[in-house]
Amino acid sequence: MRKTTALRAAAAATAALLTATACSSQRGQDAQDTAAGGACKGQQTTGITDKTIKLGGIYPLSGPASAYGTISKGVATYLKYVNDKGGIDGRKVEFVVRDDGYQPPKAVEEARRLVEQEKVFALFQTLGTPSTAAVWDYLDKQKVPQPFVATGASAWGTDERHPWTIGWQPDYVSEARVYAKYLKDAQPKADVAVLYQNDDFGKDLLGGFKKAVAGSGIKVVAEESYEVTAPSVSAQMTSLARSKADVLLDVTTPKFGSQALAADAKNTEWNPLHIVNNVSSSAAVLKPVGFKNVQGVVSATYFKDPADPQWADDPEVKTYKDALHTYAPDADPANQFNAYGWAVASSLHKALDAMKCPTREGLRDAVRHLKDVEVDMLLPGVTLSTGPDDAFPIETMQLMRFKGERWQLFGKPVDTRKEFGPAAK
Q1: Strand stretches in 37-77, DSSP E
Q2: 215: region left, alpha or beta (phi > 0 left; psi from -120 to 50 alpha)
Q3: CB-hemisphere CA count at 13 Å for 324?
Q4: Distance between CA 115 and CA 47 in Å, rounded?
Q5: Given this model, what pLDDT does residue 283 score?
Q6: Under 8 Å CB-to-CB from 214, ≥6 apart: which residues?
Q7: 295: phi then psi, degrees, rounded to nearest 5
Q8: What is the pTM of this model?
């Protein structure tokens, strides 16, 4: 079972806050929570009725990772669209969004409000590794589902002590494996410099990359980390440039991704192949740098890019664009974070449909027993699959290269389960 130092730190930092009011909040919750009868006897029905489902979400609507906040618009748009079509199995969905500013203690406060005051059925989408790590112990104790968290840390699929929490997007180790395979084929003797965020997110991807290239001719020759509270990564980029590495592996969140891309473009004496991780691949990250300055940058994805002309006539992409225009007219359909929100909400819809019992336990079990479930916003060949020994819903990605004003897919989808085996615990 994998448990990192950062996850332990997040849990310790919030333990006092969780304990302080545990007894009083539990009494209030016991008085208001409801349970099912019949074949589902004793299972929790808090937040779900025959006509409604209440979901909560925690996003950084402010702070250093606020670019991710628009994901909530994509989620809300999908749910509003579905509600107008009759809801999910006849139930209208209410989606309550809270802002944690990408601060774990604030995420704990908001999680408590959503569970104890709002009485949500599930906490669908906590965004970020630090925030998710801060709340999963609490949600596990409260037996509240935390499905499809917006972070690719491998812990969500390998930690067996938190059955109520599961990821959605490809984990960072799987993503790292895709880049490793690409370099083994394209630049088998490459020297690699790495910029990474100093938390579980950055360390997960870096560690996965190192393990995937072990024994090959590819070497990591320079590493620089940064704190999420730092004003910039200019000093780190200057240091990495001295390595004269052939490849820059950029493991950053959007603010710092833009900074790294800009610094790379400005330094004409160092021209590495720039690989930027998926979570900073949105056009919203690249556009401030200037599209002319990010030509040839490589990344990987698993869902359809609404800006890609090849999906212009795709029924799901057209539905997404029309719905966003109707329900969130201020949101940019070309922003991949909005498309991400639509795709993950659609995935939750599939999981809710698969529940054997309309209960919290029913959702907990449904997300862990998915078998090649197709979601129309995912790329062809990418499906949702989980099982008793596999808690990673998506482990297939396809490489893409930025050309002109958009990403272009290349190569074939890489199923990391087949290429590398299951994620190590």
Answers
A1: 52-59
A2: left
A3: 27
A4: 9
A5: 87
A6: none
A7: -65, 135
A8: 0.87
Burial class (CB in 10 A: 0-12, 13-18, 19+), 423: buried
In the numeric block, which tokens belong to residue 321? 């664009």
Instruction: Please tell me the predicted confidence (pLDDT) of residue 10.
Output: 53
User: Cα-flanking dihedrals φ and ψ of residue 99, to 5°?
Assistant: -105, 125
- On the question of pLDDT at 70 being above 70, the answer is yes
Tell me how far apart the alpha carbons of residues 79 and 92 are, in angstroms, rounded to a whole number.
8
For 189-236, the pLDDT digits (tens) are: 999 999 999 998 999 999 999 999 999 999 999 999 999 999 999 999
CA angle 64, 70, 73 (to 5 degrees): 150
Contact 245, 189 (CB under 8 A): no
Residues 342, 346, 351: CA angle, nearest 5 degrees:
150
Instruction: Answer whether residue 2 shows pLDDT above 90.
Output: no
The whole-angstrom separation of Cα 423 and Cα 262 is: 34
